[in-house]
């Protein structure tokens, strides 16, 4: 006579472990992707804050007109940014601001090659001011503006992780939408 077993068979246990593993990996991937998007949003908030300040600085008639870079201390001294800790970066990334002779502004986010943030991934968080550097040109989101890279003295594309273009002709629609986040 064959006795009926009252426990789980090995195949049932393996199916349960496999199912639990798949669910665990899915949850991990969801939270990892969510954390990365939240981080990119925070980086874009800082870049947008600098972009708004640089935009107002460039519209000011007393702002310097010529190729070069603009420092955070210049924006703070001009009153376009509140007094902040003198750091030109966010997280492990470095932010640099450039101006050409026509008062077009450029904000570049730099990071080493081991950082996961890329221009393509952060551009969706930068909105209409997002830009990319291709073929010695800086092209705005949607292709509305195209400026030569050579117009911005000191600008480099090595380790470039994000780029924002602030055109000299401003409209209210070009202000950054920070998605409810603000300082």
TrEMBL record:
Keyword Membrane tagged: yes
Cross-referenced InterPro entries: N_methyl_site (IPR012902)
Main location as per UniProt: membrane
Membrane-topology annotation of the record: Single-pass membrane protein
GO-annotated cellular components: membrane
Regions that span the bilayer: 7-31
Compartment(s): Membrane
The organism's place on the tree of life at top rank: Bacteria
Keywords on record: Membrane, Transmembrane, Transmembrane helix
Protein name per its UniProtKB record: Bundle-forming pilus minor pilin BfpJ
Source organism: Escherichia coli
């Amino acid at each position: 006579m064959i006795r009926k077993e009252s426990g789980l068979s090995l195949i049932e246990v393996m199916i349960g472990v496999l199912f639990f593993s798949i669910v665990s990996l899915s949850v991990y991937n969801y939270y990892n992707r969510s954390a990365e998007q939240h981080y990119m949003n925070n980086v874009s908030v800082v870049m947008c804050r600098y972009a708004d300040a640089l935009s107002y600085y460039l519209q000011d008639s007393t702002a310097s007109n010529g190729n070069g870079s603009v420092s955070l201390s210049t924006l703070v001294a001009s009153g376009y940014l509140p007094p902040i800790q003198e750091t030109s970066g966010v997280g492990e990334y470095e932010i640099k601001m450039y101006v050409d002779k026509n008062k077009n502004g450029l904000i570049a986010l730099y990071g080493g090659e081991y950082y996961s943030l890329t221009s393509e991934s952060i551009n969706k968080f930068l909105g209409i001011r997002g830009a990319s550097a291709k073929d010695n040109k800086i092209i705005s989101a949607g292709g509305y503006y195209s400026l030569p890279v050579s117009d911005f003295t000191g600008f480099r594309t090595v380790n470039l992780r994000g780029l924002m273009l602030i055109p000299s002709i401003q409209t209210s629609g070009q202000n950054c939408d920070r998605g409810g986040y603000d300082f």
